[in-house]
Amino acid sequence: MTEVLTLDIAGWRPSLAPGVQESAVRALEGGGVVVLPRVQFEMAERERRFLSQQWSDGRAKNVSLDGTRLKGAQGGDADLAELAAMVARFAADAATLVATLFPRYAPYVTRARTSFRPQPAVGRQVSWRKDDSRLHVDAFPSRPNRGERILRVFTNLNPTEPRVWRVGESFETMARTLLPRIKAPLPGAAAILSALHVTRGRRSEYDHYMLNLHDRAKEDMEYQRTCEQAVVPMPPGATWLCFSDQVMHAAVSGQYMLEQTIHLPVAALYDRERAPLAILERLTGRPLVPARAGS
Ligand SMILES: [Fe+2]
């Protein structure tokens, strides 16, 4: 079962009592969610107007910050510049938090994308594959990561309502259930997808299995109903972190969230043996990324 560790630390550069860092590392890399109710994003009074769906262009799921420009947003130039500045401030806060709690990750915190999610977490009509109200691990079809980790920092900006998640069973338990349903990749398929620019770079076997675990979990409503799971409400203002490529998670409800993605090489982990790459290589009995990419 997914561990949920709540820590009573405050601020983006929290002072940490002895042992806190170790327990945060153990929970995070063990596939848990670390919840920080007192690590809160400060919004200026005039920024509260951004708590509205009107800033979304209606096409993209999220507003995202790419360099200094917003994507998926609509509004006047001055408003959008202010919104971009707010999202950039969160990116800096999230980087500070990760570097403070997990010093080994500090060199990588800038490799990131930041999103503002003004729309309700659920309710949009989407295909089963894009339906994030179903339990899944994150895997990106167009961005092969060859074992690289997806660390995410979230903050619930909603002043009154929780952001509610479901979390599922451990990565290894899920993988043992779903791996037998996954066929080995077709020889040559990765090269073709890369040549056609469907993927940015070559898909490794690891990517193949991760994408399939995402899909096999989401398509199976029986699995969705019956696997071990828990509902976890993230309070208004709370911040939480997890490796979203490892934690089985699903959106239940909520609106207004900031999210920071950080890509970490396996080598940055405190214990790489607990990562999905190592778990999948143990379960399949063979290396799943070309030798250099996984190191
Ligand atoms: Fe997700």
Explain this structure.
The chain is α+β, with helices and mostly antiparallel strands and 295 residues long. 27% of the residues lie in helices and 19% in strands. It has an 8-stranded mixed sheet, covered by helices on one side. It has a 3-stranded antiparallel sheet with strand order 8-7-10, with no helix packed on it. Strand 1 (4-6), helix 1 and strand 2 form a beta-alpha-beta unit. Helix 3 runs parallel beside helix 7 (276-284). It is globular. The mean pLDDT is 93. Bound molecules: fe (ii) ion (FE2). The site of fe (ii) ion (FE2) has 5 residues, from loops.
Q: Which sequence of SSEs, written as H and E, runs from N to C?
A: EHEEEHEEEHHHHEEEEH
Give the class from helix and strand content and strand pairing.
Answer: alpha+beta
Give the helix level as a range of percent.
25-40%
Mean pLDDT: 93
The biggest beta sheet reads: 8 strands, mixed
Q: Radius of gyration from the CA trace?
A: 19 Å
Query: Ligands bound here?
Result: fe (ii) ion
* Assembly status: single chain
- The total beta strand count reads 11
Distance between the termini: 28 Å
Number of helices: 7
**What strand order characterises the main sheet?**
1-2-9-6-11-5-3-4
**Beta-strand content estimate:** 15-25%
> Which regions have little confidence, pLDDT < 50, spanning 5+ residues?
none
Apparent shape: globular
Question: What brief labels describe this structure?
Answer:
binds fe (ii) ion, 8-stranded mixed beta sheet, 295 residues, alpha+beta, single chain
